[in-house]
Design brief:
The chain is of the alpha+beta class. It is 58% helix and 19% strand. It has a single domain, classed as Tgt2/MlaC (Nuclear Transport Factor 2, Chain: A, Roll). A five-stranded antiparallel β-sheet has the order 1-2-3-4-5.
Length: 221
């Protein structure tokens, strides 16, 4: 697993795909077991709603948005990858536009990819408590034809029965940290110009939608 692969998939979509492979778990009082149960619930919903190859694209995207909103700490992560300094300096209008573009780009790039799910197996090996409100769930994906399993760990935060996924680590690389580093590098290269970042996200969104349309045409022929 390389940083290039993380950039290709993006942390949010890769996270949803990996939890789609997980089996059911039984919740108990310990937060680590509750975190595993949370992943199991997400797994069931992803498989049910996102992996139908005949699902229309618009419906696929709406379901994807719903799962992101329900299971992932999207607002917190999107702010964190931008960086507190740039978030504080941005106007309210820029913040709103950033959140919209960040979400739309994730949907346009990744929602339709789950229709390629082919039944890989994910095995949860263990979970450990980080603190009273966080647990790290450790797992591996066994891939047919691969020399070794893919190691996937994800961080779950929550309390009182409400949980959200806040990060995923693939072969030791944090996906949110990788994206944060990319955004930091872009902002540094552009003098901290928020409008430049927004323009870049718009360009990436247009390309993602164009690529998606080409992919859809290819599968329909």
């Amino acid at each position: 697993m390389t940083r290039a692969m993380l950039r290709t998939w993006g942390w949010g979509a890769f996270l949803i795909l990996t939890v789609a492979l997980a089996g059911p778990h039984t919740a108990r009082a310990d937060i680590s077991d509750e975190a595993k149960a949370f992943i199991g619930k997400l797994s069931d919903e992803v498989i049910e709603k996102l992996t139908d190859p005949d699902l229309p694209l618009e419906q696929q995207e709406e379901r994807f948005k719903g799962i992101v909103t329900k299971y992932i700490a999207f607002k917190s992560i999107s702010r964190w990858v931008l960086g507190q300094r740039h978030w504080k300096r941005a106007s309210e209008e820029q913040r709103t536009e950033y959140m919209r573009l960040y979400g739309d780009l994730m949907v346009a790039t990744y929602a339709h990819r789950f229709q390629g799910y082919s039944g890989e197996k994910l095995e949860v090996t263990k979970a450990r408590v980080i603190d009273a409100n966080q647990a790290l769930v450790e797992s591996k994906i066994v891939r047919e034809g691969a020399d070794k399993p893919l190691i996937i760990n994800w961080r779950v935060r929550g309390a009182n029965g409400t949980y959200r996924i806040i990060d995923i680590m693939v072969e030791g690389l944090s996906m949110s940290q990788t994206q944060r580093s990319e955004f930091k590098s872009f902002m540094r290269s552009n003098g901290g110009n928020m409008d430049a970042l927004l323009a870049n996200l718009k360009e990436r969104l247009q390309k993602a939608r164009s690529d998606r349309q080409l992919a859809q045409k290819g599968t329909s022929q």
